[in-house]
Write a structure and sequence with these properties.
The complex is a heterodimer of chains A (about 300) and B (about 180). Chain A has about 300 residues and is mainly alpha-helical. In chain A, about 70% of the residues lie in helices and about 0% in strands. Chain B has a single domain, classed as Lipocalin, CATH 2.40.128. Classes of the chains: A mainly alpha (about 300), B mainly beta (about 180).
């Protein structure tokens, strides 16, 4: 167990923003009804993560070079000369924001599913390319594609479950997976990347809890969750590979944990209530537990 | 014209003969650090580096150091800390696998010398000046120095309030022909 001041700071700076954002989501749904749920959930996750980042300073939103487009080009291609590309984690907030918007637009225009899923798939392909650093792209050319498929699959599963159930079950399960990602990063000795996982986990958990109290489609953060979790695990593995004993399998299990929810897709319509929520949370916690258990076994923390 | 060419070649030869170059490696050069916090301290350093020290005769003020440190060779007195120091919270060695130091000026300062140079960490070059004991001869060069740097100058701000911003560095060079 980390020292109490560390736990207290994490509760204040990571969990409290999530709770605050959840309160706003609840207020919006209470006042405006279930139709406001997708927008409120997206805004809640964005606000909770941004507020947590304000306290923890996990990431900046402008590149070190100051030139956003040049940095983007450098991340997509091999940097020339001695230039150093931004760390993949830098792009996570921007990609998550874009995924939130794409998902939101797709939910507001449900009749164009073909266009919606084409846009989501293309976006995942772009995100996969951006989040895999140059040296990994060279050594494992399949990795950007694998990451894209992982993101798109998780997005589809979370979208399907949240749109069928109209409660917070899928988001709560996703939150457990994100929290596991944060804990894995902690075991890989990166406080910054642990914050990445935990701040999103808290914000998504807040939305999930509101979804248990009010009926509505709270799944608009599905894309952001998929991009954030899978991207964080790839970026985190790359960044911490020099000084961490956490095995590759641990990052893979944490990054792919939401795929376990696929087991619930065939029976989603038959389990719309608490049964579905309990099964989703259980599956999420099992995946998260395996990842955390592996991290604890191979890279135990001593405080 | 022919005489001038001969003179120029002769001068170049004399200059080249006067400048001695010594190779620096992790065997003859040690760079260690001590990081402190309110309730303790940790020791560490770097095992691998490459570089050169060049001198004109035995004039220590002509000393030019150019060192590249392999950041992945970072070590400390605690394995967990070593991992932490290598990642994004501190040195971010995946993105910045090399640190550099290059002298720009060495001046006499009382009984010792004052060395000024550019230290590049995490891709950011910052000018540092530190006191050093230097002895130089045709056979070798030795340099020893202890000084402090402020890690915030290189954007290493993790642990504000819990880890002291000042880090004590020790450099020990014993290069021979």
């Amino acid at each position: 167990m980390p020292p109490w001041p560390e736990v207290e700071a994490a509760l204040l700076h990571l969990a409290l923003p999530g709770v605050g954002a959840a309160f706003l989501v609840a207020l919006a749904v209470r006042l405006l009804g279930a139709r406001a749920a997708p927008v409120a959930a997206a805004l809640g996750v964005a606000a909770g993560s941004l507020l947590a980042n304000h306290f923890r300073a996990a990431t900046t939103f402008l590149p070190e070079s100051g030139d956003f487009l040049a940095s983007l080009g450098m991340a997509l291609e091999r940097p020339a000369g001695e230039a150093v590309a931004e760390a993949p984690r830098f792009w996570l907030p921007w990609l998550a924001l874009a995924a939130l918007l794409i998902d939101l637009v797709a939910r507001l225009r449900p009749d164009d599913q073909g266009v919606n899923w084409s846009a989501k798939t293309l976006f995942c392909a772009f995100a996969g390319r951006l989040l895999v650093p140059d040296d990994l792209r060279l050594s494992s050319p399949w990795l950007p594609w694998a990451l894209s498929v992982a993101m798109a699959s998780q997005w589809a599963i979370l979208w399907w479950l949240s749109s069928r159930w109209r409660n917070g079950g899928a988001m709560l399960a996703a939150s457990a997976c994100l929290a596991a990602g944060g804990v894995v990063m902690l075991h890989a000795h990166s406080a910054r990347l642990a914050d990445f996982g935990l701040m999103m986990a808290c914000a998504v958990a807040g939305v999930g809890l509101v979804g248990l109290m009010f009926e509505g489609d709270f799944g608009s953060p599905s894309g952001a969750v998929a991009v954030w979790l899978s991207g964080l695990m790839v970026a985190g593995r790359w960044e911490t590979s020099e000084g961490s004993a956490v095995p590759l399998a641990c990052f893979a299990v944490a990054g792919l944990a939401p795929l376990a929810l696929l087991a619930l897709v065939p029976s989603a319509d038959r389990w719309p209530g608490w049964r579905g929520v309990a099964a989703a949370v259980w599956l999420g916690v099992v995946g998260a537990g395996v990842a955390v258990g592996l991290a604890m076994r191979y890279a135990p923390l001593t405080f | 014209m022919k005489r001038m060419m001969t003179m120029a070649c002769l001068l170049a030869f004399v200059a080249a003969a006067g400048a001695a170059e010594f190779k620096l490696t992790g065997d003859n050069t040690t760079i260690t650090f001590v990081g402190t916090k309110p309730d303790g301290k940790h020791d560490g350093g770097f095992k691998k580096l490459t570089g050169t020290a060049t001198l004109d005769g035995d004039d220590a003020t002509s000393l030019k150091l150019a060192v590249e440190i392999e950041m992945t060779s970072l070590f400390s007195d605690n394995d967990m800390l070593t991992g932490h120091l290598k990642n994004a919270d501190f040195f971010e060695v995946k993105r910045f696998p090399k640190a550099k130091f290059e002298t720009t000026k060495v001046v006499k300062d009382g009984t010792g010398y004052k060395v000024t140079g550019k230290l590049t960490l995490r891709g950011k070059a910052v000018e540092v000046t530190f006191p050093a004991n230097v002895s130089a001869s045709a056979d070798g060069v030795t340099l020893s120095s202890k000084f402090k740097i402020d890690r915030n100058d290189w954007g290493i701000t993790h642990g504000k309030g819990k880890i002291d911003p000042e880090v004590a560095l020790s450099i020990d060079v014993k290069a021979k022909k």
